[in-house]
Amino acid sequence: MPASALMNVMTKAARKAGRALSRDFGEVEHLQVATKGPADFVSRADHRAEKIIYEELAHARPHYNFLMEERGIVEGSDKTHRWIVDPLDGTTNYLHGIPQFAISIALERDGKLVAGLIYNPVMDEMFTAEKGSGAFLNDRRIRVAGREKLEDCVVVTGVPHRGKSGKEVFIQECRDVMQTVVGIRRTGSAAIDLAWVAAGRFDGYWERGIQAWDMAAGIVLVREAGGMVSDAEGGHDMLLKGSIVAGTAPIQSELQKTISPNS
Description:
The protein is of the alpha+beta class. The chain has helices at 5-24, 44-60, 91-95, 167-178, 190-198, 212-224, 238-241, 249-259, and strands spanning 33-37, 40-43, 64-68, 72-74, 78-89, 102-109, 112-120, 125-130, 135-137, 140-142, 154-157, 183-185, 204-208, 228-230, 243-247. Strands 4-3-5-6-7-8-9-10 form an eight-stranded mixed sheet, with helices on both faces. A hairpin with a 4-residue loop joins strand 8 (125-130) and strand 9 (135-137). Helix 1 packs antiparallel against helix 2 and helix 5 (190-198) runs parallel beside helix 6 (212-224). The longest helix is centred in the first third of the chain and has 20 residues, at 5-24.
């Protein structure tokens, strides 16, 4: 299926930024690293990738708004459209030479997510989705896994690191989930977690305390791959609440009730 004009814009920006990230990957000792917060690193490569993405998207759609991890909010004259961008999700992996990181680009129209792209340049895996058009990995259609019982599943999550709150809640959630599932994984990138749920590699995913740019593109991917997404309480305010539960319909529901039994 030929890519739309919108998706061509997004993939062009992601591939250009991905080439820049790949050039520095594996040479992390040469990167100038600044500390943005406890265990939260931002590198020269991160800023360069965001600059490339911003310039490409702004050139193609000059009036759109932006929400970006490093630049924050950039106002445009078109108030109906907003790009949501993470130029390097999995920065800590990147800086340690672990090839699990991704560029994440989503488009919001009238407050609704309508397109998403997640790209791991090292593996050259480009996950794309547009509302109503399905989800794809390198032009191949993808679907969420077909398992229907949580006890048969491998799920993925994010672990609160040093400097982040919510550790006690997370530990209790892990205890509850571990009693049921086959296994729990941690990749270090929320974007990859969601892309892999969409592709059926993971059956479900949950995390609290993450940002809109971490999950916006992945939400579109999971939905278009036939999955379900909610916040931790079972509502639809993922971007505002900073929590997410994703998977197939039965798995997402069971996983959400496991981590929030009183919701």
